[in-house]
Amino acid sequence: MSVRAAFETETRVLPLAQILPTRQITPQVRATRKYRAIRSSIAAVGVVEPLVVHPQAGDRYVLL
Fold first, then answer.
1. Which residue, among 58, 64, 47, 46, has the nearest Cα to 17 in the 3D structure?
2. What is the average pLDDT across 38-52?
3. Reported confidence tier of residue 28, pLDDT bands at 50, 70, 90
4. How far apart, in whole angstroms, are the C-alpha atoms of residue 19 and residue 63?
5. Residues of 25-61 as b/e, b for ≥16 C-beta within 10 angstroms?
């Protein structure tokens, strides 16, 4: 029995402008301790794992 991968096996580099958010981040969310901690971690270490996206019309990708 063969199993087909449900994702691409190669990593793509995309311009950030092509990646659409799944929701808008409100000022109230940006003010939370958790959001600030995540933002600080990304600033200090970077993104450790690649983002997962799904293609959309018009050469855009939605962030999963």
1. 58
2. 92
3. very high
4. 6
5. eeeeeeeeeeeeeeeeeeeeeeeeeeeebeeeeeeeb
pTM given for the model? 0.65
> DSSP readout, the chain?
-----SS-SS-----GGGEEPSSPPPHHHHTSHHHHHHHHHHHHH--SS---EEEETTTEEEE-
Distance in angstroms between the alpha carbons of the first and the last residue of the chain: 29
Q: How far apart are CA 32 and CA 50, in angstroms?
A: 24
Distance CA 30, CA 36 (A): 7
